[in-house]
Amino acid sequence: MPSVSVLLLRACLALLASPIYLLAFLGIWEPFCRKVFFPFLLDKICVTHDKKSKKHKQELFRNLPDFRGPSGQLRLLEIGTGAGSNFQFYPAGCRVTCTDINPNFQQSLSKNMKKNQHLQYEQFLVAAAEDLGQVPSGSVDAVVCTLVLCSVHSVSSTLREVLRVLRPGGAFYFLEHVAAEHSSWRYFWQQVCYPTWKLVFAGCCLTRELWKNLEEAKFSELKIQHISVAMPWMPIEPHIVGYGVK
Predict the structure, then answer these.
(1) Which of these, 157, 210, 206, lies nearest to 2 by C-alpha position?
(2) Which residues form the Methyltransferase type domain (predicted)?
(3) Which of 54, 116, 165, 208 is the residue whose CA sits 20 to 30 A from 12?
(4) Dihedral, CA atoms, 27, 28, 32, 35, nearest 10 degrees?
């Protein structure tokens, strides 16, 4: 149960964001957020986050070629592709299937596809991370998911789908923001911001301990590193980065 001070500050933040809460109550906010506000906001935030996380992504994706299939090609599925900011890190000739529950990133996605013509783009699927039924079981060599597990409805269901679509020996790559240490001021502010942040940022949860979900999933090998990606005025500094092998 959150402390009284957390609840009081939550109420103050909700008061400041009361127009958004009103629009949500009227059923206007969610469609507007998905179609206009969130793609616009994410595009701006990603510019900063990409700069801060670039070295971590370069290191993370460095061994992607090691997971090429028997044919010599790398078949990669990205969950929550968004604007396609990860394309620059994928090896030449990689065959990429993009998925996202929100189809409203077309402009930025097309721009990044044109900038990264070293890749082969297979298809774009509008699909929730928990239901990748359009992707055959065991059909991909690698699955990538960055800043997505914070907002899926079920992390465990998403990881089950990841393991289903991966071939044996394939790898799941992730970079996600997570809950801070419970005794820290950062975690206090994550708790304060939680309800309003989740509403404004299309379901993004600030306090998920995603490393626990990954440890519980049935990966034969799992490498997780806790890192810091400092974002100005945003409560998402603690991150985890790594990969798991099926």
Answers:
(1) 206
(2) 77-174
(3) 208
(4) 40
Count of all residues that appear for the chain in the document: 246
CA angle, 55 then 57 then 58, to 5°: 65
CA neighbor of 98 nearest in space, from 73, 80, 120, 115:
80
Please state the separation of Cα 165 from the chain's center in Å: 18
Tell me the pTM. 0.94
In tens digits, the chain (246 residues) has pLDDT values of: 688 999 999 999 999 999 999 999 999 999 998 888 888 888 888 888 889 999 999 999 999 999 998 888 999 999 999 989 999 999 999 999 999 998 888 888 899 999 999 999 999 999 999 999 999 999 999 999 999 999 999 999 999 999 999 999 999 999 999 999 999 999 999 999 999 999 999 999 999 999 999 999 989 999 999 999 988 888 999 999 999 999
Amino acid at 115: K
Sheet with 75-79, strands from edge to edge, namely 120-126, 95-100, 75-79, 140-146, 166-177, 238-245, 221-228
How distant is the alpha carbon of residue 64 from its chain centre? 18
User: What is the three-class DSSP state of 56?
Assistant: helix
Domains observed in the chain: 31-245 (3.40.50.150)
DSSP 244: E
Determine the Cα–Cα distance for residues 152 and 10; give it in Å rounded to an integer. Answer: 23
Task: Let me know: does 133 contact 165? Beta carbons within 8 Å.
Answer: no
Whose CA is closest to 143, among 121, 164, 113, 115?
Answer: 164
